[in-house]
Design goal:
With about 130 residues, the chain is α+β, with helices and mostly antiparallel strands. The chain contains four helices and five strands. Strands 2-1-3-4-5 form a five-stranded antiparallel beta sheet.
Length: about 130
């Protein structure tokens, strides 16, 4: 474990704790505004995390809230990663609701182009507020 004075970057900690598969995905998660540290939305992955910080983030349709319990020195096996955090609340599985935009198409129309699908996907996945 790392000493308390050597606080790691948020993106690195999310990767060490095995919430994301790569650091670049952790950076993307932060840049999209899907991560909050102590109630403040984080836009950059280089923010330092400290012991006891509350980290809330949205992964797909699952909202997680954890407390930083330790720092890691490597991305190790799952039991080692689970020692890095304490679940503050159980994961919340978001279900599709009526307030999310839904694109309606006439029956028999072709599949939307890739650009349109990506724009629709961007509307469907809400930010943490």
């Amino acid at each position: 474990m790392v000493e308390a004075g050597d606080a790691p970057r948020l993106d690195k900690w999310l990767w060490f704790a095995r919430f994301v598969k790569t650091r670049s995905l952790a950076q993307t998660l932060c840049a999209a505004g899907h991560v909050q540290v102590n109630g403040q939305t984080v836009r950059r992955g280089h923010q330092k995390v400290r012991l006891g910080d509350d980290v809330a983030f949205l992964l797909g349709d699952v909202r997680r809230s954890v407390t930083v319990a330790a720092f890691g020195v490597r991305r190790g096996p799952a039991p080692e990663a689970q020692a890095l955090y304490i679940e503050s609340n159980p994961p919340v599985f978001l279900k599709p609701s009526d307030d999310r935009p839904v694109v309606r198409r006439d029956r028999g129309t072709e599949r939307p182009p890739k650009r349109e699908r990506r724009l629709t996907d961007a509307l469907i996945h809400p930010f943490i507020e």
